[in-house]
Amino acid sequence: MGPATVDGRCAPGFAGVREAFERNFREHGDIGAAVAVTVDGEAVVDLWGGHADAAGTRTWERDTLVNVYSTSKGMTALCAHLLVDRGELDLDAPVARYWPEFGQAGKQDIPVRWLLSHRAGLIAPREPLPPGCAYDWEAVCAALAAAPPWWSPGTAQGYHAVTFGYLVGEVVRRITGQSLGAFLRSEITGPLGAGVFIGTPAEEHARCADMVGQLDEARLAAQFPGGVPRPPFRALSDHPLAVVMLALTSIPTGDVNSAAYRSAEIPAGNAHAGARGLAAVYGALAGGELVGPATLEAMRRSQSLPGERDLTMDALAPAGREHRWGLGYMLNHQGQAGPNPRAFGHGGAGGSFAFADPENRLSFAYTMNKYGGGTTGDDPRNRGLVRAVYRALAETRR
């Protein structure tokens, strides 16, 4: 493969974003990627470049989609908040009001808001599910409905890496009669003309880039001489890595470049999206178009206690840091989404990242197919782009 060709445009004053984007290919090894930014509902950055596969046989096009892993969670949470805004979902009501089977195993009083804020203690079923079960919605939801929590609900937060999508998605399905992906498409991304799918139709698969690389379990194993344990565990205290292995591996997803994976609905982690589509959704949020002011404020209100750590995130990085969750969103207390502490969004394993900044009426999205940094918006590629965006914004507003 030769040097990556970058296509697209930047509005006057945003040329620095193009420079940062090109630098990602030269210095950080991007294979294929896109970045999009809107301000006041207008696209000020729309760039793409590189290749959609490791061999360099397919060019990354303007409409290329890619698996964005947990960046999906922002779209999933938005479906729930749209129902809140319409008065169809009460976040303080028990989940069992909408999903009666969920009330088993001492879960009858868990409120919906604890699903969105990673406080329900349901990072995994009690027994690992067989390969391919991630594609069986009914089986996964039945297993979660029957499972007791791994900790006392509400007393701690622990990132529900995979189960988040089934838990929130089933509440949406019980209320609307539509799957999460169908509701997202009919009510949000379809009307916006945004290229974002959870359950990507077969006719869109030709647009999908291949993900290059995966979660590096060897890095985890190196931290523990005994190696990476596998579920089942009886308690989180069984092993220092129990929580993260439960969260990541108890519902196996299989080959992320397969047609089966792309077609499935795994709403915590398999949205296939373009940067332009994600920026369009977050731009509509930033502009107050999708939900009312009260709902928008609630979405980004911290659900975490001051100084609270995240059980799953700490297991991934034992020298971790404080994590603040909104209602389905990562809050910007570390500056990963620029200088506005009230910006909010979600990152994905590998490096994708998207957010809304309502005070600046700005949205940002970066997608890529080289698996790199973590979920929290701390990959050097997206951080460099965010810095360039806000430098440009400051210059254009002088």
How would you describe this structure in keywords?
34% helix; Beta-lactamase; single chain; alpha+beta; 398 residues; three-stranded antiparallel β-sheet; 10 strands; 14 helices
What does this structure look like?
The protein is α+β, with helices and mostly antiparallel strands and 398 residues long. The protein has one domain (6-396): Beta-lactamase (3-Layer(aba) Sandwich), CATH 3.40.710. It has helices spanning 15-27, 72-85, 95-98, 112-116, 137-146, 163-176, 180-192, 217-223, 242-249, 259-263, 275-286, 293-299, 311-316, 380-396; strands at residues 6-10, 32-39, 42-50, 66-67, 196-197, 272-273, 330-331, 344-347, 353-357, 362-368. A seven-stranded antiparallel β-sheet has the order 1-3-2-10-9-8-7, with helices on both faces. It has a three-stranded antiparallel β-sheet with strand order 4-6-5. A hairpin with a 4-residue loop joins strand 9 (353-357) and strand 10 (362-368). The longest helix has 17 residues, at 380-396. The chain is globular and about 60 Å long. It starts with 5 loop residues before the first strand and ends with a helix. 53% of the residues are buried. The mean pLDDT is 93.
